[in-house]
Amino acid sequence: MSRILVVDDEPQILRALRINLRARGYDVDVAATGTAALRTAASHPPDLVVLDLGLPDLDGVDVIRGLRGWTTVPIIVLSGRAGSDDKVTALDAGADDYVTKPFGVDELLARIRAVTRRHTSGTDPTGPTARLGHHTVDLAAHTVTADDGTEVKLTPTQWRVLETLLRNPGKLITQRQLLHDVWGPGYETETSYLRQYLAQLRRKLEPNPARPRHLLTEPGMGYRYQP
Q: Is 51 exposed, middle or buried (0-12, 13-18, 19+ CB in 10 A)?
């Protein structure tokens, strides 16, 4: 059984999530402030945190940074803020995923299951190989092979972009993080690079590049590999 810490200053949301999560077998702790969240996490370490960004005492991003100072526990952000900048900031601070308010409980539960699977499957969540449409990607050998045996050639930069996404299945990777990881410091604003290389990868690997199923764009925020 997993312990989930739900942090939100809206009593109705705390009550609804506590009921729904406990009904599905989770242990649930709740906190209405950032200070209480950090104190509860320290005294009863959770397996996952569901965190509202808009708290009365601390900004949710500060809570994320506080948690990341000592734990790698998965964090799912609840965001009622309309702008994507807040979500990107939270993801860059160490959040694993986000859900926009108002949200459906089923969607949140699906995100919890996905993040939990990624976190518990080890440091290499995809293993030595990953599937992308009709292709098998060997992360150790740096090869991409179609189901008919044809090898797909990728440039070194295309490979680095693809590998970064595949090693984080289901996780949103922000534009800033992807640019930093692939091109290095100083390139965090060169978003046109990403559009260009993702388009190239989709043409090579997606069954229908115009309607990608695996290499997905989160507008204004980043990209996600959906297995």
A: buried
d(CA 7, CA 113): 18
Q: How far is it, in rounded angstroms, from Cα 33 to Cα 142?
A: 46
Residues 178 and 141 sit within 8 Å (Cβ to Cβ): no
Query: CA-CA distance, 85 to 100, in Å (whole number)?
Result: 13
| Residue 214: alpha-carbon gap to chain centroid | 14
In the block, which residue shows the tokens 């807040």? Answer: 86
Q: Which helix (H) or strand (E) holds 181?
A: helix 175-183
Q: What is the mean pLDDT of each run of 10 residues along the chain (227 residues)?
A: 90 94 94 95 93 92 90 88 75 86 88 79 58 87 89 90 87 87 82 90 93 90 87
- β-strand partners of 97: 76
Q: What are the φ/ψ torsions at residue 108 (nearest 5 degrees)?
A: -60, -40
* CA–CA gap between residue 151 and residue 227 (Å, rounded): 20
